[in-house]
Automatic annotation (TrEMBL):
It is found in: Cell outer membrane. The keyword Membrane applies. The lineage of its organism: Bacteria, Pseudomonadati, Bacteroidota, Cytophagia, Cytophagales. Keywords: Cell outer membrane, Membrane, Signal. This is RagB/SusD family nutrient uptake outer membrane protein. It comes from Dyadobacter chenwenxiniae. Residues 301-535 form the RagB/SusD domain. Gene3D superfamilies: 1.25.40.390. Belongs to the SusD family. It holds the Pfam family SusD_RagB.
């Protein structure tokens, strides 16, 4: 039986247990479970598991929840008093009251731990490989181990050093962890291939440069996570500028004229992507970033009347108001990153019949009354000519036909603020075209790094080193001006750190960067809807109690983070 990346490889150890082609010819790694493998097949089988858990890591209830629902961008109330209660874990996440038994924390830690272990297994297994790919695959596995450790450091304040699968990992923190991760990425930089050869779904040359830039930009945070203010060293900012310059000069990525195509079902070929979770060949892939926020009575696919949303998180009024303040009297939908209307029926209620092939829900931040395919007894209604009948949606599936699917700005943890239709919603990633349930068969690659972030990181480094506002403004405006599929956002006239933070929110909302951005910009201890906790100890998450218990036979080995 043969499976292609990124399907999950069934066997993995736990952390504490002993020539060129074009984009159209990318090599897809196979996980081959059969005897008499060739050296190349065996090498593929060792490397594929290193990437295989990336879709799990980026699930809506793991990496996304921990990095978005903890911020001013996303809030998930106890919907209608019946949905998303989950023993209060999402309320606690948003209020920075998470505990060491939180299942989302535990699952994220476990996925990272397994991925580090798989990387170590691949590195050691490839030592005796006679495949011509052995050196390249070893570099990729080593780089992915560094990437997973970088996420561990960012979220839990620790990294793990381990080369021998039978040895116990050495736990490092702070400066030592930053230097270790940097040295690993630098070691494999000359070996990994260009993006044009392996595509954005594997660790490539520009991805390594991007990770080095991101590491150095956040190094001040990682060195002293609880500091009242962070020391952004000039040498760190120089490295950010160095690596972002290399990426931009290489021409291996280009800004996309169409903002929402970056998150579309065909985005694997979008040139803005640098590094992403490749989901093309994964028929059971992770589609839930599309379904998580929209209504349970929004059915985005004409072919599948069972594929809907779940009324999960909305954006806070605080985040929405940052758009309003930026655009004043102009509706923020003026910005092509905020909203994309896909059919006139949503603004012209007289258009009620739509061909199946033309039916698409809106994208971006969804406000007010929602229109869509009308469903009765599990089937879509049809017009006399057979076209799909589209109209105003109400909460029929919730047995609340009296409640319109009309998203309001205010969402909070009160009974009224937790209703199904509270909070503006986000449909940034396109709904998977083959997702018959809405919870599977994701088409769109999930972005880890894209070129807009490279420009934004360079702008930030220039501001933090010498306050070069003119150069930073030029980078930000270049990104804004690139969205020419519709009228691009107007150019900004000034730039400072607060404006750059706001701009990062507009460009990267729902992309799992908000928590690290808020910490780095000194905003994470602030107040927003239903969140007042100012404890700096909450910048990182608790180490799961299960992990601490599992390491209890070695006293002092795995120590809980402060404040938990």
């Amino acid at each position: 039986m043969k499976k292609k990346l990124p399907l999950i490889f069934a066997v993995a150890g736990m952390l504490f247990m002993a020539p060129g082609c074009t984009d159209l010819e990318e090599q897809v790694l196979d996980e081959t479970l059969q005897a008499n493998l060739s050296p190349d097949e065996a090498a593929n089988g060792l490397l594929a598991p290193v990437y295989a858990l990336l879709p799990n890591l980026f699930q809506h209830t793991t990496y996304f929840a921990l990095n978005e629902i903890t911020t001013d961008e996303a809030i998930l109330p106890y919907r209608g008093g019946t949905d998303w209660g989950d023993n209060g874990i999402y309320l606690a996440l948003h209020q920075h009251n998470t505990t060491a038994t939180d299942p989302n924390v535990n699952n994220t830690w476990g996925t990272l731990s397994q991925s580090i272990s798989r990387s170590i297994t691949a590195i050691n297994g490839l030592k005796n490989s006679t495949s011509a790919t052995a050196a390249l695959y070893t570099a990729e596995a080593r780089g992915m181990r560094a990437y997973y450790n970088m996420i561990m450091l960012d979220m839990f304040g620790v990294a793990f050093v381990k080369d021998d699968p039978n040895a116990v990992s050495v736990i490092i923190r702070g400066e030592e962890a930053v230097k270790y991760i940097e040295s690993e990425l630098l070691a494999i930089e000359p070996i990994v291939q260009p993006k044009s050869v392996v595509g954005p779904g594997r660790l490539n040359q520009v991805a390594v440069w991007g990770l080095l830039a991101r590491l150095n930009l956040n190094a001040a945070v990682y060195r002293n996570i609880y500091a009242p203010t962070f020391e952004f060293r000039a040498e760190d900012m120089d490295k950010v500028i160095q690596y972002t310059d290399k990426i931009i000069a290489s021409g291996q990525a280009k800004l996309s004229p169409d903002y929402f195509s970056i998150f579309g079902n065909q985005n694997h070929s979008n040139q803005e992507l640098i590094f992403a979770v490749d989901q093309r060949s994964d028929l059971n892939g992770h589609n839930r970033l599309a379904y998580f926020s929209i209504s349970g009575d929004q059915f985005p696919l004409a072919a599948f009347p069972a594929a809907n949303g779940t009324d999960g998180p909305g954006i806070t009024s605080d985040f929405y108001q940052s758009w309003v303040q930026a655009y004043g009297a102009v509706d923020p939908k003026r910005d092509p990153r905020f909203y994309q209307e896909n059919m006139s029926v949503y603004s012209n209620a007289a258009d009620t019949c739509v061909k199946d092939s033309d039916y698409k829900i809106n994208r971006g931040i969804l406000r007010g009354q929602q229109f869509g395919a009308l469903r009765v007894n599990g089937a879509f209604l049809r017009c006399p000519d057979g076209r799909l009948k589209v109209g105003k949606l109400s909460y029929v599936t919730r047995n609340r036909a009296d409640l319109p699917v009309s998203f309001g700005e205010i969402v909070d943890f009160t009974t009224a603020g937790s209703n199904y239709n509270t909070g503006y919603r986000v449909a940034k990633y396109e709904f998977g075209s083959e997702s018959n349930t809405g919870r599977n068969k994701g088409d769109a690659d999930i972005v880890i790094l894209r070129l807009a972030d490279i420009y934004m990181m360079r702008a930030e480094a220039k501001l933090r080193k010498g306050n070069n506002a003119a150069a930073a403004l030029a980078d930000v405006n270049l990104v804004r001006a690139s969205r020419t599929a519709t009228a691009p956002p107007p150019a900004l006239t000034t730039m400072n750190l607060d404006l750059l933070f706001r701009e990062r929110g507009f460009e990267f909302y729902w992309e799992m960067l908000r928590r690290s951005d808020m910490i780095r910009f000194g905003k994470y201890e602030g107040k927003w809807t239903e969140k007042t906790n100012a404890d700096v100890k909450k910048r990182i998450f608790p180490i799961p109690q299960t992990a601490i218990d599992g390491a209890s036979n070695t006293p002092g080995y795995l120590v809980q983070n402060e404040g938990y």
